[in-house]
Amino acid sequence: MPTTRQKADAHELYSQFGFIRMDPSKRLMVRFNKKLVSRYS
């Protein structure tokens, strides 16, 4: 069960992922963030 802090971190990662995904020059960061986000899913 994720803690409140982990949920906040996950939400932050989702926000970053949504923003970075709009910038094609940061494809690598998208892939990296996907791995981080999946840890909280």
Distance between the termini: 11 Å
Mean pLDDT over all positions: 67
Number of domains: 1
SSE series: HH
Number of helices: 2
Cα radius of gyration in angstroms: 11 Å
User: Helix fraction?
Assistant: over 70%
* SSE class: mainly alpha
Low-confidence stretches: none
Q: What is the general shape? A: elongated
The number of E-state strands comes to: 0
Largest sheet: none
Q: Into which percentage range does the β-strand content fall?
A: under 5%
Describe the model.
With 41 residues, this protein is an all-alpha fold. It has one domain (4-38). The protein contains two helices and no strands. It has helices spanning 4-20, 27-38. The termini are close together.
Short characterization:
With 41 residues, the chain is mainly α. 71% of the residues lie in helices and 0% in strands.
Features of this protein?
mainly alpha
Write the layout of secondary structure elements.
Elements: H1 4-20, H2 27-38
Helix pairs in contact: 1-2
